[in-house]
Design brief:
five-stranded mixed β-sheet; three-stranded mixed β-sheet; 22 helices; single chain; 10 strands; 481 residues; alpha/beta; globular
Length: 481
């Protein structure tokens, strides 16, 4: 399956997936191993892109492109001749540099492979064009627009990476009867490039790929072999940093297939492969441990234990937004926030917003400071009443400091609000402060009501009330007699 020609079969002493991965990890240097562990455990680590780094890297990339032999880069030379401005464009160069962590030599080889694969899929006419839905054939367009077997989740993981979820059972149903490599290759090429081309945050942080194979048994026929070859080719050509591959399955018989799959991956990808054997619940817990937003997984667990692709709400919105952007490219600026971060705070009302992990984290941090906020309305240490203007000023300063704290490097939270379906924008500072103020005032009032209810004497019990009533009635009768 390897696209770079450096794969090898497992040696005799490596007989299991775990031992194979351990063997590869030990072969890495300390820095490489640390980087892999951070990617596997959703630790956010990205290179700081200083102007000096960007400038020197782009120059180094062009030097590496010129040094590569001409006989191996014919499609690249055709693209350079047709549109020199594209190759010189800094945004285009940064796509590939970010995918290879600013390694100029690797990025240059990826560019050559990119144009080579693009020529195979779309021909010379579209070498320098941005691929859109209208460039796809009807079968490739159907796979993208109607199947939804591979979906980008609407929320990033704990490290800020995009999460690409593939339901293997549905993915198999989308395979065409013939020309599998070409049709699937075009569909996946378009989908990956549409995800990353205008999303700088995903370019920097990368993508986590989840192959969800619960209830699915591979047929190991020619179609699946062709699709795996296309996927491996995309991994080494598309300018995206796939930081980890997680495959969930529940059939122990698939373990030997996992061994073969891992052995066929390039060395750089092999160490990032995470096979998980277990039930739906065990796989869900494994994904949670790696920072995946499991509440947004697009499937339903049925009563008989099977899983079915169900939630296509975000996928349909994504397709709608893509069509709008491709129809009116100048409107792309409206879609500033492509995906919500896991710890974004959504400014708005509704249970779905309040259940977002970022809103839950915000409430947790705010509750820790509620007593400090309430103390601002109380008397000073000397017992002097504060003036209303002073209380208002102190509360505003407190909220400004709290906002700076949660948006700082410690928590890196961001306040966002919904503009339209699939369209988000960063909330203004005033909107964020109003949300914080509303929470503190409401929570403070609730706490005050709770404290008052606790200080009131408890109401008499029913038996005590009945006894008192009988005693009064007896007293009234005696007095009447």
């Amino acid at each position: 399956f390897a696209a770079d020609g450096h794969s090898r079969a497992p040696s005799a002493e490596i007989t299991s997936t775990e031992r194979m991965l351990n063997h590869e990890m030990r072969a890495l240097s300390v820095d490489e191993r640390s980087r892999v562990y951070e990617d596997l455990n959703a630790v956010p680590t990205i290179a700081e892109e200083t102007p000096e780094l960007v400038h020197q890297s782009i120059l180094g990339l062009h030097v590496c492109l010129n040094d590569l032999p001409a006989e191996g880069k014919t499609p690249f030379l055709k693209a350079h001749k047709a549109n020199p401005a594209l190759i010189a464009d800094s945004n285009f160069c940064l796509l590939f540099l970010r995918a290879d962590s600013f390694d100029c030599e690797k990025a240059a080889k990826r560019i050559i492979a990119y144009f080579d694969f693009k020529q195979e899929l779309f021909g010379d006419e579209l070498l320098t064009e941005r691929i859109t839905l209208r460039h796809l054939d009807s079968q490739s367009r159907k796979i993208i627009c109607t199947m939804g077997s591979t979906q980008l989740l609407p929320v990033r993981d704990a490290a800020g990476r995009g999460v690409l979820f593939a339901m293997e059972k549905e993915h198999r149903r989308s395979f065409p009867d013939e020309n599998v490599k070409l049709i699937i290759g075009r569909a996946l090429f378009y989908y990956f490039m549409a995800i990353i081309e205008d999303d700088i945050e995903t370019q920097k942080h990368g993508i986590v790929y989840i192959g969800y194979g619960i209830g699915f048994q591979p047929m190991l026929d020619a179609k699946e072999t062709d699709v795996w070859n296309v996927a491996a080719r995309l991994n080494s050509t598309i300018p995206v940093r796939l930081t980890s591959f997680m495959y969930c399955y529940d059939l122990p018989l698939l373990t030997p297939i996992m061994n073969l799959l891992i052995a066929g991956l390039p060395k750089s990808s092999r160490c990032r492969f995470q096979p998980t054997l277990g039930s739906e619940l065990e796989c869900r817990h494994a994904m949670m441990a790696r920072g995946i937003p499991v509440t947004h997984l697009p499937y339903d667990l049925r009563s008989d234990g099977t899983v079915e692709l169900n939630n296509r709400k975000f996928f349909n919105k994504w397709i709608k937004v893509r069509k709008e952007i491709e129809k009116h490219p100048r409107h792309a600026y409206r879609y500033k926030i492509k995906l919500l971060r896991l710890y974004d705070v959504v400014v708005g009302t509704g249970k779905s917003y309040q259940d977002h992990p970022g809103n839950q984290k915000f409430r947790e941090l705010a509750r820790e400071r509620i007593e400090e906020y309430r103390s601002l309305s109380q008397k000073t240490k000397d017992g002097v009443e504060r003036r209303r203007e002073t209380i208002k000023r102190l509360k505003r300063e407190f909220i400004e400091n709290f906002l700076a704290e949660i948006m700082g490097t410690t928590h890196s939270m961001r306040f966002v609000k919904k503009v339209d379906d699939g369209i988000w924008e960063e909330a203004t500072r005033e909107d964020a402060m109003n949300k914080i103020l509303f929470f503190f005032n409401r929570t403070g009032s609730e706490m005050l009501q709770k404290m008052k209810s606790q200080t009131k004497p408890p109401p008499p019990r029913a038996k005590e009330r009945q006894t008192d009533k009988e005693a009064r009635e007896e007293h009234r009768k005696k007095k009447a007699r």
